[in-house]
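Ticket 4471: requesting a sanity check on a complex prediction with beta-D-fucopyranose. Repro inputs:
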Amino acid sequence: MGDDFGDDFIWGAATAAHQIEGNNVNSDWWVREHAPGTRIPEPSGDAADSYHRYAEDIRLLAEAGLTSYRFSLEWARIEPAEGHFSRAELDHYRRMIACCADHGVTPLITLHHFTSPRWFAEDGGWLDERSVARFARYVEAVLPLLDAASHVFTINEPNILAMMIGGEKGDEQLQAGSLPAPDPVATANLIAAHRRAVEIVRRVGVPVGWPVAPQQFFADPGAEEVLKAYAYPREIVFLEAARDDDFVAVQAYTRTRITVDGPVPAPETVERTLTGWEYYPPAIAEAARLAHDVTGLPVLVSENGIATADDARRIDYTRDALKALRAEMVAGLPLLGYLHWSLLDNYEWGSYTPTFGLISWDRETFERTPKPSLAWLGEVARGVRSLDE
Ligand code: FCB
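Returned structure tokens:
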């Protein structure tokens, strides 16, 4: 089924709590969005109100023919004060997991997707070595929820998170092009926290890994050594840290050119998406190949998509991304599945303008409207539509 991707191939869509739930008031991001003088263009507010409307979102995903949903648990809700765990919030996520089962949808669960509780951030965050034990304690608290998941992701895009911390650029939109140097202390703590989380999650026997976001650096002639030095702390070290995991996950959207002087933005002549990134569908296949080459592990695409107001272009992008992935599979890449980013238009870390969703929603009423791309991807997943049509 699914156009030669195989019967066991995972087909789904992904979201992250802060970007869709709304009113994540106890998180570091909420604090940042409302800080005096913030450079963040707009706050997250109610987001898509998926905290209350998740059942409808899961139903729409299932009705389209997708069978997996990746979402994140919000640490800031579950542990609102250090060491205080909310049974009610744990129950909330338990209900979401049950709702997936009701719709024949398999949950894939992210434990940390960029946001942390404000107490954690205010008391050192990932720069404090206590972050490792603190994260492990939270993972222990959510462990009873995880046995229903097919896959668990510990920390989303640790490489991007380390760069955000390194550049103190957490309040700026991420841009392809020049990326801040990752903070080495944050890098070490994130890797240590990941290792602890992997050990804990393995107790419930669910495959566990983490999603790295390679940037598809490509070198000008003569810039190969510059590329190596640039890429190592920004992505390779995080892929190497995945070698003992059960799988490696990748998320990619675009590529970045490296000259002898370092990274440069794409030329003005190329097509760009609403995030300003170069339109480059093969990115995810290149990322998957890199992740496999570094780790030797099976690869799961945990995010891939495009910010566009033109849904036909979303279908073009996704079709070409899937074709490139299929070509890698034919060439021997063990690929477990494809989770599209994103199920819903969402809060893109500072702005609602870059729309990545397969579903849009009304800012006043929250009424959902599936886009043609949702039906299209569902048909590909069900094997009733070929990528070559
Ligand atoms: C990734 C993030 C995700 C979303 C997409 C566009 O870096 O994991 O939350 O912002 O990019």
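Notes from triage: The pocket of beta-D-fucopyranose is lined by residues 16, 19, 156-157, 160, 213, 251, 303, 341, 348-349, 356 (CB under 6 Å). Leaving this open until the requester confirms.
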